[in-house]
Amino acid sequence: MRDAGRLPSWLTRPLPDPRQTGGVRRVLESQRLNTVCDEARCPNRAECFARGTATFMILGDTCTRDCAFCSVRHGRPGAPDPDEPRRVAAAADELGLDFVVVTSVTRDDLPDGGAGHFAATVRALLSSGSSVEVEVLVPDFQGEGRPLETVLDSGLSVLGHNIETVKRLYPDVRRGADYERSLRVLERAAERSPGVAVKSALMLGLGETREEIESTLRDLKEAGVRIVCMGQYLSPTRTHTAVSRFVPPEEFDDLKEFALGLGMDHVSAGPFVRSSYDAKAALQAARARARATE
Questions:
Q1: Cβ atoms within 10 A of the Cβ of 69, count?
Q2: DSSP summary character for residue 25
Q3: pLDDT per residue as tens, the chain (294 positions)
Q4: Is 275 exposed, middle or buried (0-12, 13-18, 19+ CB in 10 A)?
Q5: What CATH number is attached to the domain comprising 274?
Q6: How far is residue 225 CA from its own chain's centroid?
Q7: Assigned domain for 262 exists
Q8: Residue 114: domain span
Q9: What is the Cα 239 distance to its own chain's centre?
Q10: Number of domains present in the structure of the chain
């Protein structure tokens, strides 16, 4: 697979003044916290940091899997830091966040996949004394139900698990993951906790067809997913999976209408959309649409 080449005009934009991001970075450094914004080289990180927000990445900075699209370090991670949940809550409080997104590296080395640490982080955020809602983006916990229940029972508002790509591309793009297993995670979450919004995300530009995208969206809807995000895949380095094509904004708009037509409560679709980008607004829009269709 070859890279799609030079970035098109819709994937270029001015960056915020670096001085506007300093406040978030100082908080992260003082609390010794990782973010998926930095570790995954998110194209929105400067914008989000300038707005005073970030997506916290817990359980270290080393993943036990090695997905071909992801720039997060792969290897043997260290033991979870039991003080990390408190530091995440302290950072969120210092930043004045009322909606917090927490994700993690995949920890297949832990008996519960890190579920207990997720739950402890959610509880620390909710007990901070301020009015906070929490969204988590979890790994598949190797398909085990009990770890998922541990996270769902922690008091969160949104449970996210990203399908990432279409089924055919899993062997090349998501080594160690399984399409059907990820669907089961989402389905179990929707059945187990109907009050929790279930969310997933899909990268485009990896070589998938329109028919495969539509099939994946149908699978997500049938699994109980209420919020879907679709964005352009951008290869973080030359050693990662190359971009097959750059999807134009009008195609994202068309796919958004298709997904809404399936009955999704909210769809975010566009070149720079990522699962945690504008997450609070996505949940609010999903709730409003759900109320309007009751």
A1: 20
A2: H
A3: 345 557 899 998 777 676 777 889 999 999 999 998 887 788 888 888 888 899 999 999 999 998 878 777 889 999 999 999 999 999 999 999 999 999 999 999 999 999 999 999 999 999 987 789 999 999 999 999 999 999 999 999 999 999 999 999 999 999 889 999 999 999 999 999 999 999 999 999 999 999 999 999 999 999 999 999 999 999 877 888 889 999 999 999 999 999 999 999 999 999 999 999 899 999 999 999 988 887
A4: buried
A5: 3.20.20.70
A6: 14
A7: yes
A8: 9-292
A9: 22
A10: 1
Q: Is residue 1 part of a domain?
A: no
Q: Amino acid identity, residue 272?
A: F
- 2 lies in some domain: no
| pTM attached to this predicted model | 0.93
Q: Would you say residue 56 lies in a domain?
A: yes
